[in-house]
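Researcher: I'm preparing a figure for a lab meeting and need a structural model of a single chain. I don't have an experimental structure, so a prediction will have to do for now. The sequence is pasted below. Please return the structure as tokens so I can convert it later.
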Amino acid sequence: MPVESNPGLPCVHCGLCLDTCPTYRVLGTEADSPRGRIYIMEGVKSGALSLDAAAVAHLDGCLGCLACESACPSGVSYGERIEEFRPRIRAAVRRNPWRLLVGFVAANETFFGFGLRIAAILDRVGLFALRRRLPGLDIFPRPGDAQVLRDVSPRERSRVAPPSTAKLEVALLTGCVGDRLKPEINRAAVEVLHRNDINVANDRALGCCGALAMHSGDQATALEQARLNVRAFSRSGLERVVTTAAGCGAMVKDYGRLLADDPELADDAHAMSERAVEVTELLVEVGYEIPQLTTPLAGKIVYHDACHLLHAAGVSSEPRTIVESAVGRVPEDLGENNICCGSAGSYNLDHPKMGLALGARKAELVTESNARVVAVGNVGCILQLERALARSGHDTRVLHPVELLAAAYDESE
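Model: Understood. Here is the structure written out token by token.
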């Protein structure tokens, strides 16, 4: 579990965070480390430094993975410090043409869908390898990737009906990226939850969690999205809100802090944060059916920790437990599990060079481990790792733990 953070504690610049910082590991420069960035932020706040282009570049290069917080023996809240600076960073970089294009396409359903169609056409005409090297188009999954378990289970994935008597009724926060690029993850989550007598309410009142806006420095939008969700969840009367994406889960669990000063919603926000739970966390907490037959996947299966599951939420053993139940053996760690893969929300699109470098390192670890399947509990990590593996020529599968458990249930029928 991460050390409890305190934004008031000063950084003593001990350097224990350095080896966990992805950008420091790649660049080796002090200003691109957590303590270097804290030095810059403190200098700007005191007036000793100006927030010039160089300072912005160093601060903007932070992935926000929070590995430094887990490593810090003093519990310094780096995340809250950089969050405070995000709006100022946003103001400085918002005119960057590439960032403008990425933001526009991501927010526009028409252009986003157009990008998906272009990617699909290139793949169909045999240009998959080339497409994976085109900035922007490289992150889209290959059509058919959603069917990777079809050869494991010869049957069509059956729809599991809602339980007639449920021990819990929950909301599923589907997530913006998950719904658009990997809807099979949420379908598997619904099947698994229904199979275990947990009813998923057919309620689309919950919208974007606000994590992407917060990470990009648009705090006004992020807080408004948080308020909308808090109001909707409070009205629903549901017992828990379940997430399959690490960043979404961390954001919802932070609603209580973010809206602590809201005179209308502070109590409801705190309650929603307390009731937010990652899907594997909930299954282990309330108990789940162990599959009679496991998913017959050949080769080594490894697990990689998503940063906001490990460092922000402290969820580590539960996804591994689910994978073990699904495949019949304990997954090994991929290696360097505390180091970010380079996804970090939209970071791999905003900072393509660094995103590719960090992804390439994960592909190297897959080669070293000879893994055939990588399990990871976050859709952004899955997309990032699939891209890195495709660029390096691997056919290794990357799957969410609930996809493996749903496939094991299919095998057991």
